[in-house]
Specification:
With about 240 residues, the chain is of the alpha+beta class. The chain has ten helices and nine strands. Strands 1-9-7-8 form a four-stranded antiparallel β-sheet, covered by helices on one side. Helix 2 packs antiparallel against helix 9.
């Protein structure tokens, strides 16, 4: 197993949740206290996973572990929730962001196309020449499984690639966890199929904070929010829950 030192920091939830880009500049969200922000984000997720169409009642909040329901008036005052009756609320922008079926299907199609293109590139980049004991040249379709950790050894992300250098550069530019990345471990696997299976098992067993696919439970999302709140980087919550 090889090691890569530091990444230069720079900068789905699962398919059910669609994070609006405008959240990054929405003053109503930015100005929430950390307690109210956590309640808003996790109740939003609760509504998506529970199919409540943006409607919340006081008993719902009791099932969302780790939130403080007393922050509800602050969210109402911000305009993000509307109180429809006693201790019952409606997430104001929910229908606008979550019920666009055509847009969702288009995004799923685009995601599938991007994944297909990435797999094609990985297949071609990961093929390297080696030799059999008889001296014959052969192609080996080798793929790397990588894990990124923060300075405290907390697992941030698990992924696979056929080109470690290019993938590292991409993460440094676009991944919301890159500001916290301190070290990585690389494992070389004989082919992409083996790497995909190993990656799936690793995500399920090790629960990296920023992996979205295969890691969409409410507990996993709460752990991510808690991590970013503790790091005083609530500005990254929307992007982290939208693309990892």
């Amino acid at each position: 197993m090889a090691h890569i030192s530091r990444i230069a920091p720079r900068r789905v939830l699962g398919p059910e949740l669609h994070i609006p880009t405008k959240w990054l500049a929405d003053r109503r969200i930015i100005e929430l206290s950390p307690v109210a922000l956590k309640l808003y984000l996790l109740s939003y997720l609760w509504s998506v996973l529970g199919g409540t169409a943006g409607r919340l009642a006081a008993p719902d909040l009791l099932y969302i572990s780790g939130v403080d329901p007393t922050a509800a008036p602050e969210i109402v005052e911000s305009g993000l929730w509307e109180e429809t009756e006693a201790e019952t609320w409606l997430i104001v922008d929910f229908a606008e962001t979550q019920d666009l079926a055509a847009a969702v299907k288009l995004e799923e199609h685009r995601r599938a196309e991007r994944l297909r293109a990435q797999r094609y590139r990985d297949r071609n980049k990961s093929k390297r020449r080696s030799r059999t004991p008889d001296g014959d040249a052969v192609l080996i379709d080798e793929t790397a499984l990588y894990r990124w950790y923060d300075a405290d050894g907390i697992l941030l992300y698990v992924g696979i690639t056929g080109d470690v250098t290019a993938r590292q550069s991409s993460h440094a530019k676009w991944s919301s966890w890159s500001p916290f990345a301190a070290s990585s471990k690389i494992e070389r696997l004989p082919d992409r199929a083996t790497a995909l299976a190993t990656e799936t098992d690793a995500i399920a067993a090790e629960r990296p904070l920023f992996n979205l696919a295969g890691n969409v439970s409410l507990e996993a999302r709460r752990a991510l929010v808690d991590y970013l709140v503790a790091k005083d980087r609530t500005d990254l919550i929307a992007s982290a829950m939208g693309r990892g």
